[in-house]
TrEMBL record, chain A:
One of its GO terms (biological process) is attachment of GPI anchor to protein. It comes from the Eukaryota. Its main location: endoplasmic reticulum. This is GPI-anchor transamidase component GPAA1.
From TrEMBL, chain B:
The gene is PIGK. Belongs to the peptidase C13 family. Pathway: Glycolipid biosynthesis; glycosylphosphatidylinositol-anchor biosynthesis. It holds the Pfam family Peptidase_C13. This is GPI-anchor transamidase. GO terms for molecular function: GPI-anchor transamidase activity.
Length: 620, 324
């Protein structure tokens, strides 16, 4: 008979799993972490390569000549921007029309749920200006986008280069797709308004005027951030909203052109190193990968490109960085790089789909695909399943052992006694935890006015502090839910609750990891030990402390400090705390402005799940 | 019977004597040599099976052979040109209305007198096989038909993406080497060719002629089974590879041929050795009745009329006089 169908062998297997449960769990946890750390080790990664046949190699001749003129245009733009005190709409319209583009504007306004530090006001109003370069011979079915955000006091060179490229592109006849040159105001808000207007959707409740001109379905988009006349390296930003990434072919294209033209290119701001077999080389790769994981887990768009990804448009942001290096690149070279990229994107016949959509990059020339990094998460989830079987067979075995030496009548009595805390007893802590989660989600925004009246804080701080207050108040719950609980204090009660909670956590983490692997993995790292080892019998104070350390809020706090460390900008505790508060407010704002899912996920699902374990800890 | 045909032909050709150049002057009257090759007309079926801009080189390949074949004398009415995509007028072409075969744009093989018979989505396996076997609907125009007879020498050139035993048509279907061999057998049984030269420039091209079993077939391929045929050179201004290596060197070889050349097939077999082509070109002559050394290039690539100038006057009989 087979291993699983033979009752004797099954019993032996189950008793093995039950006996060795803790060691196996520990081994799985270490294996999961080791697997994840090993992803950055170069022999385990693959070199990047162009998968799309239509894009082929970098064999185009770039001939963009007008870098200096582009910079002069950028200076003009800066002057007009200062004069108008915002976006110089009329000047932009005039300049784009002079370059032969079809120019349109879009005005938008948005009421923020609470004013954040950047905006300092409730209502944000702005105008986007975009010009369409129509393909000379092609039907207007497809488009490419080149955008540069109009930031106050910054990014002028990018707008100048955008206008210079527009003029150059206008003189070429080989465009098969329309090219849209977009200058958006207020960064992400403007970009969201433009995208919603372009695709006729209204998902975030913004007010915008409809777009008068359109260009067909957008195949790819690039966003430029360039703040100095000469740069030393180009940084590629890939992480988008909710941890979505563009197709790897876009990164491959960028890298291929960087190599061809000879520009220094980085990802996460870190240069590539060749010494993968040394410890420092490996730690460098790990740092780069961890930066990507952190950025992806935060779920916020790290560039204007992040909002395109939701519409299945592959997009990336290219940032020009001016650090102290000897070799400097001028605007003409950057223009040529962009020209080359756009000529290759022009050759596309379908959307980019040949390469990976889920990957991690320890460096710009190496990547790890989903097939390689998922087992790390799988090993962590296996721990939860092992604990499930442990609890389940624990109940089963206890009933079984009770049955072995007793008469049938006693068996019935024992089993009826032990199965009395049924599903309904579990329901109460579940409902209460989720109600707390709902409170955490809705109260901060709703009561910010009341908080501002009573306390001397700004709106942003009010929201954040209310959130933290609700979170901490939730910790007091176990002492209150016991009054509603019928099965309180019984052995079986907390086992059933733990069964449900572990299953719930496993499903939650699994779904999260599918959408946003980094978020799922980080939550798994902290919550799986909690789920595995919490029982009412472990020492209360110590385990309460550990549970709080491993709760989502503290994970976020540590992540903030860790992130700053990775970027080689370590902060003191004061600054770190302020940064933490701003991260929370930004997360809440991202949710209301762009539909980021991290805040509702944490508030409505992860936090209640953690509260269930907190409940179990204080069962007695 | 051969002598009768010879004299009739001489009489008709006498009328158009001045149209032919004196290079075709043969001194002695030798009927045997006149028909040493056995064919009286030449046809060419040139097929490019790939579409999309990045397959520019396949169209350039086919047009190069088309250009050579036209230059050596086969008229458009005897050429069936099938191009699966329009590169000259593609939106991405920075030099519209041209297809270049050499970088620096030295040679525009599109020219201004190209006649494409099957274009775009008309290039399918079914249409190709119908052209070969002649099973076309009655409404098909003459330009789309292969109206060959049992005295026709046919050149068939195929290029595109292929594999072991198949050739891909337009990203959606394939023709297998078995189908091709059967089509040629149908042609033989319907006496639609005298001799047939089959050239294929794809990856693993030699697999396409493995299954031939009809007589009088000679085949050349750009690579053996398991090898890829490589492209020759990219043009940075246009942004694509312009030609495949085998056809590039074939074109170079054919540019040296003129209608009076006596170059024979053995020289064609030597085109593009492994040092230039990276792949190993192959050929197959076991089904061919004549010795390849005695087969002239112009027997397939050109349409050479052998002219014999006669000095004697022939008196035509009365009925023909009144007809004139």
């Amino acid at each position: 008979m087979g291993l699983l169908s033979d009752p004797n062998r099954r019993r032996a297997l189950i008793s093995l799993l039950t006996r060795l449960n803790t060691p196996i769990c520990l081994v799985c946890y270490m294996a999961g972490v080791a697997w994840f750390m090993g992803l950055a080790f170069e022999p385990f990664t693959l070199r990047t390569y162009m998968s799309e046949n239509a894009m082929g190699s970098t064999m185009v001749e770039e001939r963009f000549p007008a870098g200096e003129r582009a910079l002069a245009t950028g200076r003009e733009f800066a002057a007009h921007k200062k004069k108008v005190g915002g976006m110089p709409v009329d000047w932009l319209v005039k300049t784009m029309q002079a370059r032969g583009l079809e120019v349109f504007t879009q005005s938008f306004s948005r009421t923020l749920p609470f004013p954040d530090e950047n905006k300092e006001r409730y209502m944000v109003k702005g105008t986007n200006v975009y010009g369409i370069l129509r393909a000379p011979r092609a039907p207007r079915t497809e488009a490419l986008v080149l955008s540069a955000p109009c930031s106050p006091g910054d990014n002028n060179q990018a707008v100048g280069l955008l206008l210079g490229l527009a003029q150059y592109f206008r003189n070429q006849i080989y465009w098969a797709k329309d090219i849209i040159f977009l200058v958006n105001e207020h960064d992400l808000i403007g970009m969201q308004a433009w995208l919603e207007g372009y695709h006729h959707t209204n998902t975030t409740g913004m007010d915008w005027s409809p777009l008068q001109g359109r260009g067909g379905s957008i195949q790819a988009a690039l966003s430029l951030e360039l703040s100095s006349d000469v740069i030393t390296s180009l940084d590629l930003v890939l992480e988008g909203l909710n941890g979505q990434l563009p197709n790897l072919d876009l990164a491959n294209l960028f890298y291929a052109f960087c190599q061809k033209i000879g520009v220094l290119c980085t990802i996460q701001g870190k240069l590539q190193r060749n010494d993968w077999d040394s410890v420092s080389g490996y730690s460098h790769a790990v740092q780069t990968m961890m930066l990507m994981v952190m950025k992806q887990a935060s779920g916020r768009p790290w560039g204007d490109h992040g909002l395109f990804l939701r519409y299945h448009i592959e997009a990336a942001t290219i940032k020009g960085i001016n650090s102290f290096r000897q070799y400097k690149t001028d605007a003409t070279t950057i223009g040529r790089l962009l020209e080359g990229m756009y000529r290759k994107l022009n050759n596309l016949l379908e959307r980019l789909h040949q390469s990976y959509f889920f990957y991690l990059m320890p460096s710009l020339s190496h990547f790890v695909s989903i097939g390689y990094y998922m087992p790390a998460f799988g090993l962590l989830t296996v721990i939860l399943l092992l604990r499930e079987t442990h609890i389940f067979t624990g109940r089963y075995l206890s009933i079984y052992s009770a049955c072995i030496g007793n008469s049938p009548l006693l068996i019935k009595y024992v089993s009826s006694q032990q199965s009395s805390p049924g599903v309904l007893s579990v329901l109460t802590p579940l409902v209460i935890s989720h109600l707390t989660g709902v409170a955490l989600y809705t109260l901060p925004i709703r009561f910010q006015e009341m908080a501002v009246e009573h306390f001397p804080v700004s709106e942003t701080e009010a929201v954040v502090l209310t959130a933290i207050a609700v979170y901490t108040a939730g910790l007091a719950l176990p002492h209150n839910t016991h009054r509603f609980l019928s099965g309180e204090g019984t052995e079986q009660g907390w086992r059933v609750l733990k069964l449900v909670a572990v299953l719930y956590l496993a499903v939650l983490l699994g779904c999260t990891a599918l959408i946003n692997f980094s978020l799922g993995f980080i939550l798994a790292l902290t919550l799986v030990p909690v789920a595995a080892f919490v029982t009412p019998h472990i020492p209360k104070v110590l385990s309460a402390f550990i549970l709080v350390i491993l709760s989502p809020a503290c994970t976020l706090l540590f992540s903030v400090f860790f992130f700053q460390e990775l970027q080689e900008m370590p902060v003191s505790f004061q600054d770190g705390w302020l940064l933490y508060l701003s991260v929370i407010s930004q997360g809440i704002l991202d949710h209301f402005l762009y539909g980021s899912l991290v805040y509702p996920l944490i508030a409505l699902l992860v936090y209640p799940c953690w509260l269930l374990f907190w409940n179990i800890l204080f069962w007695k | 019977m051969l002598a009768l045909c010879a004299s009739q032909l001489t009489a008709i050709l006498d009328m158009n004597l001045l149209a032919f150049s004196s290079r075709n002057y043969i001194k002695h009257d030798n009927a045997g040599q006149f028909f040493s090759s056995g064919h009286t007309n030449n046809w060419a079926v040139l097929v490019c099976t790939s579409r999309f801009w990045f397959n520019y080189r396949h169209v350039a390949n086919t047009l190069s052979v088309y250009r050579s074949v036209k230059r050596l004398g086969i008229p458009d009415s005897h050429i069936v040109l099938m191009l699966a995509d329009d590169m000259a007028c593609n939106h991405r072409n920075p030099k519209p209305a041209t297809v270049f075969s050499h970088k620096n744009m030295e040679l525009n093989v599109y020219g201004d007198d190209v006649e494409v018979d099957y274009r775009g989505y008309e290039v399918t396996v079914e249409n190709f096989l119908r052209v070969l076997t002649g099973r076309l609907p009655p409404s098909t125009p003459r330009s789309k038909r292969l109206l060959s007879d049992d005295r026709s020498n046919i050149l068939i050139y195929l290029t595109g993406h292929g594999g072991n035993g198949f050739l891909k048509f337009q990203d959606s279907e394939e023709i297998s080497n078995v189908e091709l061999a059967d089509a040629f057998e149908q042609m033989w049984q319907k006496r639609r060719y005298n001799e047939l030269l089959f050239i294929i420039d794809t990856c693993q091209g030699a697999s396409m002629y493995e299954r031939f079993y009809s007589p009088n077939l000679m085949a050349l391929a750009s690579s053996q089974v398991g090898e890829d045929s490589l492209s020759h050179q990219p043009d940075l201004a246009i942004g694509v590879h312009l030609m495949d290596r085998y056809t590039f060197y074939l074109l170079e070889f054919l540019e040296d041929i003129h209608p009076a050349s006596k170059t024979n097939m053995n020289d064609l077999f030597k085109v593009c050795p492994k040092s230039q082509c990276v792949s190993t070109p192959g050929h197959r002559t076991d089904l061919f009745l004549r010795d390849p050394g005695s087969v002239l290039i112009t027997d397939f690539f050109g349409s050479v009329r052998k002219v014999e100038i006669t000095m004697e006057t022939i008196n035509l009989t009365d009925p023909i006089n009144s007809f004139r």
